[in-house]
Amino acid sequence: MRRHLIGLALLICLSGLASCQRAAPPVSATTAARTEGDSFEPQTYVIPPGPRVQFDLQARVIDAIPGDVIQLEAGRYELQRQLDVAAHNITIRGRGPEKTILAFKGQSAGGQGIEATGNNFTLEGLAVEDTAGNAVKVLGARNVTIRDVRVEWTGEPTSANGAYGLYPVQCQNVLLENCTAIGASDAGLYVGQCRGVIVRGCRAERNVAGIEIENTVGADVFDNVATNNAGGLMVFDMPGLQLKAGSDIRVFRNKVVANNHPNFADPGAIVAAVPSGTGVMVMATDRVEVFDNQIEDNQTASVLIVSYLAMDRKINDPNFDAIPEFISVHGNRIAGGGQNPQGALAEPLKAALGDKFPDIMWDGVVNSATAAAGNAKPTIYLADNGAASYVNFNLAQLTPENIQAGAYKPDVDAALLSAGIEPLPEVTLAPHDPPTASASAAVRVYRSLPRKLSELGLFEGPLAEHRPAAGVVLYDLNTPLFSDFAEKRRFIKLPPGKQIDYRAEGPLAFPVGTVISKTFSYPHDAADPSKGEQILETRIELFNEDGWYGVTYVWNDEQTDAELALGGSEVDVDWIQADGRSRHVDYVIPNANQCLNCHAQDKKFLPIGPTARNLNRPAPSGDASAPAAADNQLVALAHAGMLAGLPAAAEIPTFPRFDDPHSAPADQRARAWLDVNCAHCHNAVGTARTSGLDLSWDQADLAKLGVWKAPVAAGHGSGGRKYDVIPGKPDESILLFRLESEDPSIMMPNVGRRLVNEDAVALVREWIEKMPPTE
């Protein structure tokens, strides 16, 4: 076995400075000592580049407390895995975007370069290059500052590049300042579903969309340069998202020049429909003010105002407003546009308008309720744009038949759009919150943990035998999480005299002091148990007064004990499956912050597996630790006095076993597998909530389940497919494409697996094939 320990972060988290110096290369004199008894005062830590920097940097981020500054030096930081940042009030700072470079070329794990979830997060003075997926994603945070950062895909533009460069999503109080984005296959600088945003002094070049503000309320975008993108500056609303209606967006003092780069987006992405040669584009968003910009030499349209109907995509969200209203375009310097129009609408429009398009183009779609009331007055305002020409190209009339018959009537009278609209208010941002000690709870827990798994007292005898100690119970699940075919042994330990309270939905209500353990292993030969096994890791979930926490212990080569590894690890594994097939995997052991990716529900860590419906099954066979003689493990727990409030058997919900055709029809088994493997993120409060896709077992809304739902932030993960699920057409459904992939920038889930579960993929395929057709 070849073991690549990315690091035992306990050496930092439990032992203070001496361990830090042993575990990492020499650090600068500005690095402050931290000891077991220190006061948790914020400090500056310098992490230089080096051969073990993946560990050094991730471990330091995990150990960060509010107010810490992580200083990165000049040099190239070679990284293969996503950097996960969960702490509040921290700053990651480089020596400048041309000096400090985080290089992700050949990234093998994780969907982002950096993913941050903590409030009051600052990233500045560095570059992030060649990530497999998005470069920097900040999810659900308050007070975000990204300053003087360059994100770039350094090769030729291709749909295989990451979708977004800088990607704050569902955040509040966001500042993107003096940043550069190059080569994104969707948007270089993207702000989605946020409130209170300033984007200023930035540059976007050679992206599909240079700067994009999507489903966001309150944004000022000014003093930026967007050039040589397919589309320069986009303000969009999309259906199916949690923040439904963007508004109050000001776009001013920008240079939007020569955005004529070929559109290299994946064909399945919405941004693939943006015509190359588009300067400023407003789609579906209300209350947008575009003024005092230099908009020149964009070869399709200088300013394009359209409804979502122009995208030729189904709308599966009944609450989505597809029509832009109260759009004000005034005081801009517009020239040289429309010389070589591109895009799906270009040919029919050329037949009607000629080969040169007007500078400002509107699709003329108005709200049907307004029109029905006899008040179809446009809510588009144009004024003082110099000699800029205009057309309302009347999308509803734009058909070959109308054009041929002479019935198509574009409107070029801008005087109809002279009714003024009140200027929008300026966006102001609040300062970051001061650091608070309470945000250090996770670090305090991590530092208090035993270094060895054996010290937790879960097992007696040789540790590898996993013989439960008194009060430790083995359990099993109907449908488990897939983890690259690893075998798992699961145990629960309750504090003395305490009980679990039954809950029909979600995880059972465990008492403070509960420890849940799960050991992952591979048999050397699944057909011959006598050949033994390779034990890799034991994951521990523990519940204290502050909530749940998750960590991993990595087993040694001797298989005698496991050591705490907050920074994660990676192990090469070879084994023979029961069918005689030889398999190999570079097995990824997650770091402590990655645990939050799957277990975070509304920013709170929760167990995933032990729910009533997934535990409602026979007790594990041959379980010598079973607390009572009973066929059902929930009943056994109740008989042992460990579970309170268990209802009658008929009232307990249950999951089918996804791999047992006798347990339920295929659609139910597929939904069970998707719930366990996907819905911990893809639900209304999970970390993938921003996509609008909800794969929870009890989700009945077909649109939220992905049926005819257009992708959001998928990039080339859409595989050229336009919808998450198309009934009866699995090979045209993005969901199946991502389950079938082993590419870290495409595959789902993108944490916790590297291989494909062929049986589950076949089941999901059958579910989609048999799905009744809908429109």
From TrEMBL:
Keyword Lyase attached: no
Keywords: Signal
Domain of life: Bacteria
Pfam families: Beta_helix (PF13229)
Chain ranges of the Right handed beta helix domain: 104-235
Signal peptide range in chain numbering: 1-23
Keyword presence, Ribosomal protein: no
InterPro entries hit by this protein: Beta_helix (IPR039448), PbH1 (IPR006626), Pectin_lyas_fold (IPR012334), Pectin_lyase_fold/virulence (IPR011050), SO_2930-like_C (IPR022269), SO_2930-like_dom (IPR022442)
Transmembrane segments: none
NCBIfam families: beta_helix_1 (TIGR03805), chp_HNE_0200 (TIGR03806)
Stated name of the protein: Planctomycete cytochrome C
Organism of derivation: Lacipirellula limnantheis
